[in-house]
Amino acid sequence: MTATPTRAYPSAQMRHARIATSALFFTNGAIFANLVPRYPEIKAALDIDNTMYGFAVAAWPVGAIISGLTAAALIRRAGSARLAVLGSVGTALAAVGAGLSPSYALLVACLLLGGAMDAITDVSQNAQALTVQKQYPRSIFNSFHATWSVGAATGGLMSAGAIAIHLPIGIHLTISGTVWALVALATHRFCIPKAAERDLQQDSASAAGESKISLRTVFVLGALVIIGMAGAVGEDSGSSWAALYLRTELGAPASLAGLGFTALVAAQFVGRATGDRLNDRFGVRTVTRAGALLTAVGMGLALIFPTVPGTLIGFATIGLGQATIIPAAMEQADRIPGLKTGTGLTIVTWLLRLGSLAAPPLVGAIADTIGIRYGLIIVPALSILVVTVAGVLPKRSLAHPES
């Protein structure tokens, strides 16, 4: 018989910590989303060609990969709250610097720094969110990622508005960076501080000594990377390939071609907004497998029978089906026995970023050879793989641990 959770309703401090952590996720989404729509202006201002531009924007993920493995040690030293705030401020400053860069070298340096700060922020804000989650009697972790999506949409709308009113890029990004840096700084007093965070660690092996890497640990980490990578590649399929596929291979008008990514992110938000309740009711493993099957069937059918309406539905199934799988991988990575605080989360997040960087060129190579349609097969293929390895995820949610 399943034990009933006995944790009390979260204290006012934990409710405040939840709001503050949500604000950090919102801020993280908004900072980068303010910068991206201004990339064409930056490119034109520096008079660089497409190749140089491509190397420049690649500096962001490269910076993230370089700094990513340092996050666990930094969290243990400074605490996840302080690190998330400092990382957010650093990301905001880097975005402002990129917009104001008078030279190509400075642009690359700013984007490299921005990616490095963003990676540290990503791991530390998720570590803070998982600490808050442990004090709640119900699942709330997916709600933080839903808030990130809202922040990204808000940042994009801010940037679109600034462009529409012809606000100079330097003024726009300075205002944006200042606002979000101040929001991040304001959250610090309400987050869970380092001392309390350490006291709340439930894994005594993690708190005690060195990380113990066994063969089983390696297997679990590998499975979690596959699960998280499926979600990341699914997101990239919408942002990088949806419009191009719909326009060039399916002949969709320009007004419809952009709806592939819109369908994905809208469905993703719905999935993340409802994911916590589904995890509590059906369990993380079941929800993950069901979502992966939905993606495999939905996008698989869209690729087998290519039509514009069917493809839009296919991209929506990616967003809905894979909405919770990156949070699930992160959540379980933080619970792997025998690893120091933040180690599992850092390793999975870093490998996830590394894999995500390799996926677009792979899809592109296949697309150049036999077409984008065949390159996108990687999405349902990874989803089927998720179904097979999802056994590493817990049957129940973190809010209702297995007894």
Provide structural commentary.
- This protein is an all-alpha fold and 403 residues long.
- The chain is built from 19 helices and no strands.
- It has helices spanning 12-35, 39-46, 50-68, 71-78, 80-100, 104-133, 141-164, 169-187, 194-199, 204-208, 215-249, 254-257, 259-282, 284-304, 308-321, 325-333, 343-370, 372-375, 378-389.
- Helix 5 (80-100) runs antiparallel to helix 6 and helix 13 (259-282) runs parallel beside helix 15.
- The protein is globular.
- It starts with 11 loop residues before the first helix and ends in a 14-residue tail after the last helix.
Ordered list of secondary-structure elements with their pairings:
Layout: H1 12-35, H2 39-46, H3 50-68, H4 71-78, H5 80-100, H6 104-133, H7 141-164, H8 169-187, H9 194-199, H10 204-208, H11 215-249, H12 254-257, H13 259-282, H14 284-304, H15 308-321, H16 325-333, H17 343-370, H18 372-375, H19 378-389
Number of strands: 0
Alpha-carbon distance between the two ends: 10 Å
| Number of helical segments with 4 or more residues | 19
Q: What's the gyration radius in Å?
A: 21 Å
Low-confidence stretches: 1-7, 203-209
N to C succession of SSEs: HHHHHHHHHHHHHHHHHHH
Kindly state the percentage of residues in helix. Answer: over 70%
Q: Biggest sheet, open or closed, and with what strands and sense?
A: none
Please identify the structural class as seen in this structure: mainly alpha
Provide the β-strand percentage band.
under 5%
For this structure, the quaternary state is single chain
Provide mean pLDDT, rounded: 86
General shape: globular
